[in-house]
Amino acid sequence: MTIATSNVSTTTSSVYTSSGNTAITWLSLANYGVSNVTANVHVVPSGGTANSINTILASIQINTLDTYQLYAGAEKLLLGNGDTIQINASANSAIGAVTSYTTI
Questions:
Q1: What value does the CA radius of gyration of the chain take, rounded to a whole number of Å?
Q2: For the whole model, what pTM was predicted?
Q3: Given this structure, which CATH class describes domain 2-103?
Q4: How far apart (Å, rounded) are the C-alpha atoms in residues 39 and 93?
Q5: In degrees rounded to 5, what are phi and psi of residue 52?
Q6: Sequence-ordered list of residues with C-beta below 8 angstroms from that of 75, at least 6 positions apart, any chain
Q7: How far apart are CA 33 and CA 23, in angstroms?
């Protein structure tokens, strides 16, 4: 397994892009800022854009110094080549995203 890390900003951007077919085995969002932050998480098909149809978490509130785990245990999110996970938050550089993935 491999990991990808990213700081999340107020602009929706990719925190992970699948190269080939991959499985997301774990994704966490940690708020290391000084106040509560909301975040939106999208799973976007290759060539697409983040929108309401591909939102998997909408306005999730993450309290300061708290962590939200999206995938854990036996759960998997399967992605094809070029699919992305895109995230934005209500504050710049308050949330760190860590994604663990494996090639399938």
A1: 13
A2: 0.93
A3: mainly beta
A4: 12
A5: -65, -25
A6: none
A7: 29
